[in-house]
From TrEMBL:
UniProt protein name: Uncharacterized protein
Organism: Adineta steineri
Start-end of each WD repeat: 166-207
PANTHER family recorded: POLYCOMB PROTEIN
Annotated family: Belongs to the WD repeat ESC family.
């Protein structure tokens, strides 16, 4: 199903399955594989979660109109002090890949079909979030606690560039997202700042070409990450608290959220000093400051979703803003929903919470 055919009647979601992982700790990372599963109907999908030092992969299927969600693979990091914060799916050629990073600063790359680790990507600080470019599926950006964003060719395990300087992010970076073409990165952090970075410097393009040649070449072994000190755009005025979620909505429109429950949809122009704010709203019902609660955005950009402290979920129809969101609730969902992800057609929604629970929501047929 193409993105233009995405269903977005958000009033008829129902909770189809609840899974509780054994650790019963907060699940920060959840991601749905957008690749079709061979020999399965289009409603089937893989999804992954990461929490403590574990990565879990599940398969959701429908057979004879009966749905099921089963754990099919799991991985435990050898370091029991690891805590994975984020995971994302991508493709290396025809290989289905899952990447996960967290507290220890190591992004694990898993070849799902062959059930083995590829070369890890090592950072000098914790990895709070990762993002892959849709059009360049080996290109990965990572948000780090050492105040920098790193750009990688994840298949080659080569760091192409690092972004950060004395006048930009001065604290840990919580959120990162790369646009579909892989030409821009947006980042947000503990310093309330949002930055937009370019991946098109000549030195970065040269490093990308070297990465494709492979590790047998001398140039590969001698390659150093290109350092970018200045973003092409930054704002200190949009948010007054930690920026913990950023999403590209289109080529020049970004959605951002801060820990004080302020949401912004805004347009950036590298020739302008301030953002053009298209829509701004405050969902706060009290003075609580809660961060590391991440926005979910459907593939076709028609639905936006966020979890709440009480375990409910707010879903916006992005084609009818500023209409109020639909609220989804379930009696078993009573604690903070940290992260949510949509299936490729927008008819499925998977969320995770503070107690190791996973909720699979489906639209009625």
């Amino acid at each position: 199903m193409s993105s233009d055919e995405e269903e977005y009647d958000i009033g008829n979601f129902h909770c189809a399955h609840i899974i509780t992982e054994n650790h019963k700790q907060a699940i920060y990372g959840i991601s749905i594989c957008q690749q079709a599963i061979p020999d399965e109907n289009e409603a089937a999908f893989f999804f992954a979660t990461c929490a403590i030092n574990q990565i879990c992969i599940y398969k959701y299927t429908i057979v004879n109109k009966k749905s099921s969600a089963k754990l099919i693979q799991s991985y435990s990091d050898s370091d029991d002090k690891e805590y994975f914060y984020d995971c994302k799916w991508t493709m290396f050629g025809n290989k289905t890949i899952l990447a996960a990073g967290g507290l220890r600063g190591v992004v694990r790359i898993i070849d799902v079909a062959h059930r083995n680790y590829l070369k890890p990507l090592r950072h000098l600080g914790s990895v709070n979030q990762i993002s892959f470019a849709g059009k360049q599926s080996t290109l990965m950006a990572s948000a780090c606690s050492n105040h920098t964003v790193a750009l990688w060719d994840a298949e080659a395990a080569l760091c192409l560039a690092t972004y950060g300087g004395p006048d930009q992010h001065s604290q840990g970076i919580l959120a990162v997202d790369m646009n579909y073409d892989g030409t821009f990165i947006v980042s947000g952090g503990l310093d309330n700042i949002i930055c937009v970075w370019s991946t098109q410097d000549n030195e970065i393009l040269e490093n990308k070409a070297i990465a494709k040649r492979g590790p047998l070449f001398r140039e590969f072994r001698l390659t150093k990450p290109h350092r970018i000190y200045f973003p092409i755009f930054h704002s200190t005025t949009m948010h007054e608290h930690y920026v913990d979620s950023v999403k590209w909505f289109s080529d020049d429109i970004i959605i951002s959220k801060s820990a004080d429950h302020i949401y912004c949809i805004w347009k950036f122009d590298e020739n302008e000093k301030e953002p053009n704010i298209l829509f701004r709203w405050n969902r706060a019902e009290n003075d609580d400051i809660i961060f590391d609660v991440r926005l979910g955005l459907s593939i076709a950009r028609k639905m936006l979703v966020i979890g709440r402290v009480d375990g409910s979920i707010l879903v916006w129809n992005m084609t009818t803003l500023p209409v109020q969101p639909i609220k989804l609730t379930h009696r078993e969902s009573q604690v903070m929903i940290r992260n949510l992800a949509f299936t490729h057609n927008g008819r499925g929604l998977v969320g995770c919470n503070e107690k190791g629970q996973i909720f699979i929501w489906k639209q009625a047929d």
